[in-house]
Prior knowledge:
194 residues; mainly beta; eight-stranded antiparallel beta barrel; 14% helix; globular
Amino acid sequence: MAKNLIILCILLLHFSVLTAVSEESDEVFSKKISLLSSSLPSFKNEKLTHLHFYFHDIVTAKNPTAVRVAEAAMTNASSTFFGAVSMMDDPLTVAPELSSKMVGRAQGIYASASQTELGLLMVLNFAFVEGKFNGSNLSVLGRNAVFSGVREMPIVGGSGVFRFARGYAQAKTYSWNPKTENAVVEYNVYVLHY
């Protein structure tokens, strides 16, 4: 009986040392932070911001803002351009005219990800350059069914003023030229942030 008690004590001591070492090594990698910390935004002051702007996707021009960077061998045979990948650095303006005031750029990738309709995978940042949002970004990751009236894509994060952001962006085609494939898309973005 005493022998079993000694073995049990040794095992418990060994387990407690392993647990202490495990907890200590976790501290190096991560730590809990109080939400009341002064270095973090006040989580009680969350606000909803509505942004409205126009996205100019210029494919055919002397200086295009969107270029195809990859495509599958069968892309040209597909009515949906399945497998085509484009890089963009599109201006965002306050009005549908390209000459209107620029408030930012849409920078990222869109790829044709549907075999049955023109459905794009959108991976982009709205990088703002104007007013109180200058230097701040919103990140979009979602599906854009181009020929639907209004498309909704999630806002999955942000930086600057938009840290801890979440929300959605609604896109509506304002104009599209089938000959040049240039498009102007109206965006209404609703974002919760601190």
